[in-house]
Design goal:
The complex is a heterodimer of chains A (about 450) and B (about 300).
Chain A: H1 2-25, H2 35-49, E1 59-66, H3 69-85, E2 89-96, H4 101-110, E3 117-120, H5 122-130, H6 138-142, H7 153-156, E4 160-161, E5 164-165, E6 168-173, E7 175-179, H8 181-186, H9 198-211, E8 216-219, H10 224-233, H11 251-267, H12 273-277, E9 293-300, H13 303-311, E10 316-318, E11 333-340, H14 347-359, H15 361-367, H16 377-386, H17 389-401, H18 416-432, H19 438-454
Parallel strand pairs in A: 1-2, 1-3, 8-9
Antiparallel strand pairs in A: 3-11, 4-5, 6-11, 7-9, 7-10
Helix pairs in contact in A: 3-15, 9-11, 11-19, 18-19
Chain B: H1 2-27, H2 29-49, E1 52-53, E2 61-62, H3 66-74, H4 76-107, H5 114-127, H6 131-141, H7 146-153, H8 168-178, H9 181-192, H10 196-204, H11 209-237, H12 241-247, H13 258-268, H14 272-300
Antiparallel strand pairs in B: 1-2
Helix pairs in contact in B: 2-14, 4-8, 4-9, 4-11, 4-13, 5-9, 8-12, 9-11, 11-14, 13-14
């Protein structure tokens, strides 16, 4: 009897363990060994495979993007419009949410089977360019297939890697702050005007907290977005140009930045962790939505639409605080890009499609700046007139921020995602909960981040 | 004649033996193919990848034992993940088993509508680690959650339990204890198999219910406890969804389950080689613990058929 029991147990155990190890590595199993060869093959093929000229030949494109259901509907409609105008083109769309998107793409890349056009994110751009998976689109710009004549360079810079244009921006966002005008009025505090400083913020936030009943002035901001802003104002960046080390030498910068949060938590200007940690990165649940704070300093301009609709009342966008004697911190962030992959056999048609999405007025009415403020000037002007009040706020804010901007930092180095989660875990949250001091956090962050970045040397 | 017959029989026997084998193997071939193709194959591949630096996008490069060495000498988050997982396993498994046994004993009575209750108490286990449960848990243990409302009624002020570094892990332990359904059912089956005469005899001899529990229920149930213990321990080490969906490993890595760390390495940082190595270390950890439980089993698991030896 005992032996039987044991045998049965062992068998079940073996089965469980097997399925576990397998499940955890299934993404990596596959034909890992021949990846490199396949990629090379694909590159060679595309070199000779550009079917040029033959207008009637059937062309098939695959397009991959991530997004919400709203974006899927809009994009699908845009694709239909393109196909209607170009009957010889057949487009098969592939779309998912953000979760799982990069896993899917990495698997396709490993299999030598990437779609012709993929939606790209700034954080992943260098990685994919570095592995020869994306096509430099400059030749198509030169021969007129991809028309970017109406687009300012400042909108295009984010998609450039070492001079090559590997990704075309689909919309611009600016990071900034949102505030509730009425709460400011109730508290008798003047609204933040462009050019307000960190010191101003500290003092009017206390005032807000004191004058408002049951609400805090601001939600504290020790996150990485505002850190980038602060570092840029100090003339440095989070990562160095080569992506081999942190971009700032002096830990005092990070210490000062974190001290802001510590001070504001102490003075009661900022809400304690309890109030906002539940929300996580979910924009609809930030405490400003139900009036628990009057100001929220970690928002991208396109998120104002979601924030307002969750709050059910009007909210305003504002620039981030200015550093006295410092540089501009803002930048135009490409919300996302379209890139053409080296696996594509129809690169010219793909470039044509991107050109259409960038410049065509009707198709942009359908897309309606859902991916951020359009990059072509004529499209931007055309759409601004069609926006409702919150859309106008977003367009005007991006316009305003251009005067407070300087060029974007170089794309994220490899390992950046790891460093961002390190920052969130051991710096940001630890500061919110008072489990570390700015000095300790800064030293700890430098040590661990440097180690990750050193692998890129 | 006779000779021929025996020869024929031998031949037939031989032929039938091979054909039985063929038939047998072809019957299990779907499983066999699946097992070789989807379990053994990937396992070997993952063993190979664990000795490489592999990021999915480019070919793996052989780095020998570096992944393993790195893990034990230079990876604080690995240590943190181990710590969290051990606390989770040692906290949740005994609690869950005790609770499941308690409920099973309540159900081991003849009462009206007991079947309905049994079904209802099993429901949490069916819900498993779903997104819906993540939302429910955040609602219960969040800042504006039900728990804090109850505390407020008694005059205490709560915090946001799921996001607080000191309490987040406890809420996850409560979650898995709450999902006690499957061990409960197994306990129930075990309880029903205990002969009623034993209790009767004990009662006649004047044993109290508590004594009956210690002297009859526990020993008679020990094989089932053993089974549940092994299964729950392994499941505990492999726990993933609870943390992934509710706390995502945070705050400050306080709920960073081993499997969540592994997933993060593999699919967020594309460090497949390292993640494969992590998977193999976990396999070894599970094996060690299970062997340990098996070894100790001799001293506390009672098998009726062997007269207690």
């Amino acid at each position: 009897m005992q032996k039987k029991w044991n045998l049965l147990l062992l068998f079940i155990l073996l089965f469980f363990l097997c399925s576990f190890v397998t499940a955890c590595s299934s993404g990596g199993s596959g034909d890992g060994d021949d990846n490199a060869d396949q990629v090379d093959d694909a590159t060679e093929e595309t070199g000779s495979g550009d079917a040029v000229g033959d207008e009637d030949a059937e062309v098939e494109l695959r397009i991959l993007w991530w997004g919400s259901q709203d974006r899927h509907n809009r994009t699908l409609e845009a694709i239909d419009m393109y196909v209607e105008e170009n009957p010889h083109v057949k487009i098969s769309p592939e779309f998912t949410g953000w979760d799982g998107y990069w896993e899917k793409m990495a698997t396709q890349a490993a299999g030598g089977n990437m779609p012709d056009i993929v939606q790209m994110d700034y954080a992943y751009l260098t990685e994919y360019v570095g592995r020869d998976l994306l096509v430099d689109l400059n030749p198509f710009v030169e021969d007129g297939t991809l028309d970017l004549s109406d687009v300012d360079d400042i909108y295009l810079d984010g998609g450039k890697v070492e001079g090559g244009l590997y990704a075309v921006n689909l919309g611009a966002n600016v990071h900034g702050a949102a505030y509730d005008k009425e709460m400011f009025e109730d508290a008798g505090v003047p609204e933040p005007e462009p050019g307000y400083t960190y010191e101003d913020l500290k003092s009017f936030a206390v005032e807000l907290s004191e004058n408002l009943d049951g609400a805090y002035g601001i939600q504290p901001f020790a996150g990485v977005n505002n850190l980038r802003h602060y570092l840029r104002q100090n003339g440095v960046s989070l990562f160095n140009e080569e992506g081999t080390a942190l971009g700032y030498e002096d830990d005092q910068l990070l210490i000062d930045y974190l001290q802001l949060t510590v001070d504001m938590l102490e003075s009661g200007a900022a809400a304690p962790a309890d109030v906002f940690m539940d929300a996580g990165s979910n924009i609809e649940q930030q405490p400003i939505v139900n009036g628990e704070t009057a100001m929220f300093l970690d928002i991208y301009s396109n998120q104002i639409v979601a924030l307002e609709s969750a709050a059910g009342r009007s909210l305003e966008l504002s620039l981030s605080p200015v550093l006295e004697g410092g540089e501009h911190g803002h930048f135009l962030k490409p919300s996302q890009f379209f890139s053409v992959t080296t696996h594509s056999k129809e690169q010219e048609e793909a470039a044509k499609f991107i050109s259409y999405i960038t410049n065509n007025l009707e198709v942009n009415e359908v897309l309606n700046a859902e991916r951020g403020v359009p990059i072509a000037a004529s499209v931007r002007d055309h759409l601004r007139d069609l926006q409702d009040s919150v859309g106008v706020k977003m367009f005007d804010f991006v316009e305003l921020a251009q005067d407070y901007s300087k060029p974007i930092d170089p794309p994220e180095p490899e390992g950046a995602t790891e460093i961002l989660s390190l920052y969130e875990n051991e710096v940001e949250h630890a500061i919110y909960y008072g489990q570390t001091t700015p000095e300790e956090a800064a030293a700890n962050f430098r040590e661990k981040a440097s180690e990750i970045l050193a692998k890129n040397e | 004649m006779r000779k021929n017959r025996t020869n024929g029989m031998k031949l037939r026997k031989l032929r039938s033996q091979t054909s039985i084998d063929v038939i047998g193997f072809s019957f299990i071939s779907p499983w066999l193919i699946g097992f070789l193709g989807f379990i053994v194959g990937p396992m070997l591949a993952s063993l190979y990848f664990s000795f490489t630096d592999y990021d999915l996008l480019s070919a793996p490069t052989w780095i020998g034992l570096d992944n393993y060495i790195n893990m034990f000498t230079n990876d604080e988050r690995f240590i943190q993940a181990l710590k969290v997982t051990f606390i989770f396993v040692f906290g949740s498994v005994p609690l869950k088993l005790a609770f499941a046994l308690f409920v099973a004993m309540l159900f081991n009575t003849k009462r009206k509508g007991i079947g309905l209750y049994r079904t209802m108490y099993y429901v949490p286990s069916i819900l498993g680690g779903s997104v819906a449960i993540a939302v429910v848990w955040r609602q219960l243990f969040g800042r504006d959650g039900a728990l804090n409302d109850i505390l407020a009624f008694f005059g205490f002020e709560g915090t946001s339990w799921v996001t607080h570094p000191d309490y987040a892990l406890s809420t996850l332990i409560i979650l898995v204890v709450w999902q006690f359904g499957s061990p409960m059912l197994i306990f129930l089956a075990g309880l029903k198999a205990i002969p009623y005469e034993l209790y009767e005899a004990a009662a006649v001899d004047g044993a109290s219910p508590f004594l009956q529990f210690i002297k009859i229920t526990l020993p008679m149930l020990s094989p089932v406890i053993f089974f549940n213990l092994v299964m729950q321990t392994i499941q505990g080490f492999m726990a993933f969804t609870q943390s992934f969906l509710i706390t995502n490993g945070g705050p400050m890595d306080r709920t960073l389950f081993y499997a969540v760390y592994l997933y993060e390495k593999a699919f967020a940082h594309f460090d497949m080689g390292y993640a494969s190595a992590l998977a193999w270390v976990l396999l070894i950890i599970c094996a060690v613990f299970t062997t340990f439980i098996f070894k100790t089993a001799k001293s506390w698991v009672y098998y009726e058929s062997e007269g207690g030896n």
